[in-house]
Predict the 3D structure of the following.
Amino acid sequence: MRYTGVVNSDVDDGLHNDQENQSNSSESHQGVEESDSSEDEVAPRNTVGDVPLVWYKDEEHIGYDLNGKKIKKRTRKDKVESFLESADDAKNWLKVYDEYNDEEVEVTKKELKLINRLLKGKAPHSDFDPYAPYVDWFKWDDAKHPLSNAPEPKRRFIPSKWESKKVVKLVRAIRMGLIKRDKPKEEQQFYHLWGDDSSSTEKANHLSFIPAPKSKLPGHEESYNPSLEYIPTQEEINSYQLMFEEDRPKFIPRRYTSLRSIPAYDNAVKDVFERCLDLYLCPRVRKKRINIDPESLKPKLPSRRDLKPYPVTCYLEYKGHTDAVVSISIEASGQWLASGSLDGTVRIWEVETGRCLRVWEFEEAVKFVAWNPLREIPIVAVSVGQEVFILNTGLGDEEEQKNIKELLHFETPVAPDDSGDKVSVASWHQDDKHEGIRLRHFKTVSSVEWHRKGDYFSTVMPAGESRAVLIHQLSKKHTQRIPFKLRGLPVSSVFHPTKKIFFISTKKNIRAYDLQKQKLIKKLETGLREVSSISVHPGGDNIIVGSREGKLCWFDMDLSSKPYRILKCHPKDITNVAFHRSYPLFASCSDDCTAYVFHGMVYSDLNQNPLIVPLEILRGHTSSNGRGVMDCKFHPRQPWLFTAGADSVIKLYCH
Amino acid sequence: MDIDGVNEEENSRRVQVRFVTKLKPPMTVPPLPIAIPSNLTRLGLSTLVNNLIQNGNPDWNTQPFDFLIDGELVRMSLDKFLLAKSISAEKILEIEYIKAVAPRKEEEPSLHDDWVSSVDGSDPRFIVTGCYDSLARVWKAAGECTHILEGHSDVIASVGVINRKGVEGITVATASKDRTLRLWKFDTEDSINNPIRIRAFKILRGHTKSVQCVAAQNTGDMVCSGSWDNTIKLWQTNDSQSDGDLVSIKKRKGNDQADESQLEGEAVSTLVGHTQCVSSVVWPQQETIYSASWDHSVRLWDAETGKNSLDIFCTKVLNCLDVGGESSALIAAGGSDPILRIWDPRKPGTSAPVFQFSSHTSWISACKWHDKSWFHLVSSSYDGKVMLWDLRTAWPLAVIESHKDKVLCADWWKGDSIISGGADSKLCVSSGISVL
């Protein structure tokens, strides 16, 4: 260290080095040579320490040696002498004067190299390589544990107390208003009144921003001296007075010879007021307009032409009744038609020609007629008031007639030998007048439905309360109550076309009962005000229900207890609904004198829901006493629809 | 040419025509081309031809004619017709004229007690009608009833005259809704004021439902019947007691009833195939039976084997069927819609009708070909009209509106009359139709 410090300070003083100093330096140099391993051990000749040399400026000596003797200052050479000396000596530039020790030191070649390297900013020793490849002495491979297995210190998990204190301080300062975070926005003092607002920043910020409507810009006619074509004539001005006040032009252009002569605008206050009213009261709502083709919202339905055949035109009329025909029924083969009317007659018609074959007369209005579904037993069940008649139509061959006569004959009335309860419900009698059986009920019977096997039939008495629905067996002349508790007012009952299931529809709901297990299977909630009629699809899994409010519900038993579809077609009560036995058709008839025919395709694939397509509106009946079409039934084998009207006509609509 | 009413049309277009005909003199005109105004209608052409004939034959009584151009009847004015058919008006047009086919005389209707359900006029000597009062009647002429056939217990649905060769006397078959067919024999020679009531000589039992139609083989040996039990049954018509079964039945029958002469017959064979009521049968040739049914099909049966050889499916219920026309091969059928359809079974590969006539407004109840003409047929409908058709035009030749209610049956009689019966219980005869 000593070398460097001295060398740096005395490089310029090289000229002042003298002989004595040189000899001393060689001595010291030798001393240095001795202790090459450690430079610090070479003791300097002078022992005064680190004191300013100025103190010895005026002394003879420069300090003291190890033994305490004064080191005498060498005699100074004069400049010429030293210059000559330096000129003579080629190595003079290597000599450095050591002021502290008062001697001249010659820099060796090795030291020179070292100095050069330092000056260039390199490492002092030439054999030191600062960019030697790094040799990692620690063996990292296969180390199981990290170098330090110490757990994370707790302080790393604890929020810094000082930081939180600082934050609290800042928050307080912000609250007190000492720190202002952002400058308040400068409000624009002026804005472009007639500029386009559509690209304003407000619009960008608010999605629902609607700019205020602009008032109209003044045009040429508002000029103080407009062209003649803007000036209305006196007649026009007069005609303005006749116009409606809102249509009247607000401003009438006039001409003035100079700006000076323009009077004050008398409507100024009114105009501004109206403008303010406009801005304030005019509802500015962005209309959300969705452009949807209304056609695309309609469900894709197959064309009606592809769904042929279905009943379209009325070709045949069955005339003969004198009052509204309330019920019709078609024989299983489709050759005969039975009809019951309010005039108290039941008629049998030939479907093909419209010929009335037979008439039965009763005292009361006929409510319901139903053919036995078996072709071999052409008998008709008729409900008249409190009675149900089983009538022999006399059709069929001799053998069948014999069977029917046996079936409709019994010696003693069954009623007396039964318990008293059953007597009151229904009693069987032989009816000689009409050649059939008379079943006397205790209340008015509204409908009769046959079981598909033609032996059992059910009757519904809406006023019968708990005994409202009865099931009769024709072969045993036996009557039984249904073993279920009835809820609500029953409207009609239907047997399932294939299974042992019995449907009872009340005014609101429809319940399906298993007759074998004697329990309720399903309850269908129509959601209608008053159910009027029900029909079961021949497959048995779909039911249509007509209601008094003109709605028709389609139930898919597999789907849910809610209607699969509700069709609102009729403006008045639906009086009856019917399924076709073989064609995918169903129909509804209503008091609005129309019958609707629908395509109702039920797929055997359970994944496919039934397809319902409205096909045709059948008109032709006329209204009578507010009633229109009272009943509709499909021909069992042809796509034909029979409708019974309150105008006492039965019509046949063919495909 | 000096023709009234034509000179006024000086400035209208004229066409060169030549009138030709197959009619015999004196109804011929000189085959010279003449120029006539193109706006003439059928009436104009008819007066023209009548005048032409009158020129050659002064004591000619005018009669209406019908005109054919290229095998099609002219039913509009000549220029419209040429335009519609795109026939050139430049060259000489050849117009064939025929006698207009239309009834000239409406005879007094023959009143029945009930609806007339069926009528047969295949024998020129008499008309047979079936009635809803379960009686069949034989009429010598309009209003002259000679026989009443008594015995059915229900509505007679169909009657058919059996032409038996080598047997004098007349045999008639009736089909009834009482599920039986009855065969009757009578003689037309005796003419008495009061109609004779006769009973059937043979009762054919076997159908389980009402019998809807009956038709006789042309030899007269057998009849076939269609019924609501979906079958067609074939029956023997002979009254010989050769069959053992028949004799025994007759004996048993004799014990029960007073009438000894009634035979009972059973079906020879049954043709099964229709799935619904067989509404009409015809037996035009020895071997083939045509049947129409409510199952929308027309079927052709081989009478010997009972095989069904041809099906034509229509989309509508069929009520009536007849075979005739060109070489007796065209099938005409009508049913539950106002369209009379005509099929040609000889046309391979198609079941589309070759003609459709749709002037009726309700169900067609009967259709009959003229037995001599290839072109003429008659149809009756529930709309109360009987229409006379010519295959060569889409419009009816004549519409007979003598019925007040549904017409249930119609037939030709004597080749120049149309007989029809309906729900107004009348048998109407429109005569004087010069088809040939």
